[in-house]
Amino acid sequence: MSVSRRGAESERFEDRQHAGRLLADLVAAEIGDENVTVLALPRGGVPVAYEVASRLGAPLDVLLVRKLGVPWQPELAFGAVATGGVVVLNDDYLENLGIGEQTVRDVAALERSALERRERVYRDEHAPADLSGKTAVVIDDGIATGATMKAALASLKQRGVARRVVAAPVAAADTVRELDAEAELVLVLRTPPNFVAVGAWYEDFSPVSDEEVRALLARAARPLDPAR
Prior knowledge:
The protein is of the alpha/beta class. It has helices at about 15-30, 45-55, 90-95, 100-125, 145-155, 175-180, 210-220, and strands at about 1-5, 35-40, 60, 65-70, 75-80, 85-90, 135-140, 165-170, 185-190. The longest helix is centred in the middle third of the chain and has 23 residues, at about 100-125.
C-alpha cells in the first residue's frame, strides 16, 4: 500500500532537511506507534532520515547496497550485496546470461569489500542495527528507477524485520507502484507527473559528504543531546 500527500506536486523542497521534516510528519502519522528503526540509503538519504528518526525518537542506521554487475556489462546487475552480509541474486539473470558460481563469488567478494570499507567510514566498526521483529523504515532523498531501493528491501527479508516501509520526499509514480509490490507500505510526499530527476525537486541539492553522514549518525546516537 502506498500513501502520499498530494496538493503540492509542483512545490520543490528547500533542501534535504526541509524535506525530512515534512516526511517525518507523514511517517509519524502512519507508523508513529510501531517499534521502528530508521535506515538511510547513503549519502543523500541520511539528512532526510535524520529528521524522521529525530521526530520518531527512533534509532538511525545506514543501509548500504552495492549492485553486482555483469562483468561484460557492468551497468546490468545480477544481484546486490547489502549491510549485514546479505547477498541478493537474480536467478533468472544468472541462468539467462550463463553466469557461473565462480563469477558470482568473485564479483560479490569485490563489492562486499567495497561495502565493508564504506561501512567502516560511517560506523567506526559498530555492528549494523538489530532489526529482528522491528519495522524498518528505509529512506532516500528521492526515488527514480527504484533499483537500489528494491535491493535494499530484498536484503531486509534476510534480517528478520517484521515490516518493511519505504519513505521518500519524492518519487516517480511508476516506481511507487512497483515498490508497492515489494514493501508493506510506501510513504511519499510528491509523485509528480513530470518527475525528470530527484534533484529537480530541491532548491538546494548539494552533495552530502562522508563527514556529514558521520556527524548525523553520531548526533542521532545521542538522544539527549540538546543540539538535536
